[in-house]
Design brief:
Structural class: alpha/beta
Strand content: 15-25%
Order of helices and strands: HEHEHEHEEHEHEHEHEHEHEE
């Protein structure tokens, strides 16, 4: 009988311990603070990597994290900010849809005491976001411009596919490229159209350009999705071996295409690095840090067939 009572007592202790463990785990889960990851569009593999990496790092740091897809629509983005402010989120990892149109959303979050950390894309304000982590697109495209001239030559016709006109990255990349290419009067830009950073749109625009200007020797694309679309159009037109394609982003499919000799080069932006750092900044802010640099440049590396073996999975291997 004595042994039975000991067994019962031991079982009771175990049951109480299990109950307390469950209650503690439940309380900890309920107490988890929330971080929002607002991405311009999840219809582009590069931004999927950016968003998913930011979310994963926030979770590793002990937060609940949710991705909001703005679908390149400032109205959807505004609705996301209203929801996350009302939802008690403690920080926002933000990839804006528009350099000017997104400022009001960031200011609303700031007024509500919620820090916003911009990733990859910037807003045209120096006192709304807590920090902005941005690829050095201009310098990267200066290097691409130099490679363009070396590859295509100092004369001939070429085209440019721009990204979203409301995104500063579009113009920083274009300006960096032209700061080099425009020094060579023999190189004539016969078309400059927006492909909206989208593969299907890039294909459509490239088809139209080829019909009007069949003798182009190269095409500079403001991102890799458009570069893949442009290459597809060139294949269909039987010009893939004649027209040299340059992209920008460091997307995995373009890195593989460079290895295969289909696309000449891209600028590697390191989205995983930016995403992880933004989550770490948010964690530091929540824990009390306030002194963040307003703009934090991330160097871009040029990926070519000569060094492509060093790159993959949206960064260096």
């Amino acid at each position: 009988m004595k042994i039975n009572w000991l067994k019962l007592a031991f079982a009771a202790v175990l049951a109480m311990a299990a109950l307390r463990f469950t209650e503690t785990a439940t309380a900890q889960a309920a107490a988890k603070q929330k971080i929002a990851v607002v991405i311009s569009t999840m219809n582009n593999p590069w931004f999927v990597v950016l968003g998913e990496t930011a979310k994963a790092r926030a979770i590793e740091l002990g937060y609940d994290a949710t991705i909001f897809d703005s679908q390149n629509d400032t109205a959807k983005e505004a609705a996301h900010f209203e929801n996350l402010i009302a939802g008690g989120y403690k920080a926002v990892l933000f990839n804006p849809t528009d350099a000017n149109g997104s400022i009001a959303n960031v200011q609303k979050a700031k007024a509500a005491g919620i820090p916003v950390f911009c990733i990859d894309r910037e807003i045209n304000s120096t006192n709304a976001a807590t920090a902005q982590m941005l690829s050095d697109s201009y310098s990267g495209c200066v290097k691409l411009g130099q490679l363009f001239v070396k590859t295509v030559g100092k004369d001939g016709e070429y085209a440019e596919l721009l990204g979203l006109v409301g995104d500063n990255n579009t113009w920083n990349r274009s300006k960096g490229f032209h700061s080099v290419v425009d020094r060579f009067p023999g190189l004539k830009m016969v078309a400059q159209q927006s492909g909206e950073f989208d593969r299907a749109k890039g294909l459509e625009v490239m088809e139209s350009i080829l019909q009007a200007h069949p003798n182009i020797k190269g095409v500079f694309c403001g991102n890799d999705s458009m570069a893949m679309g442009a290459y597809q159009a060139l294949v269909t037109a039987g010009k893939a071996d004649v027209v040299k394609v340059f992209g920008f982003d460091g997307a995995d499919d373009v890195v593989k295409s460079i290895a295969d000799g289909k696309i000449v080069a891209t600028g590697m932006q390191f989205p995983k690095k930016m995403a992880q750092q933004s989550a770490e900044f948010a964690d530091q802010y929540i824990k009390g840090k306030r002194d963040f640099a307003q703009k934090i440049p991330v160097p871009v590396e040029i990926v070519t067939k000569e060094n492509v073996s060093k790159y993959g999975d949206y960064g260096k291997k």
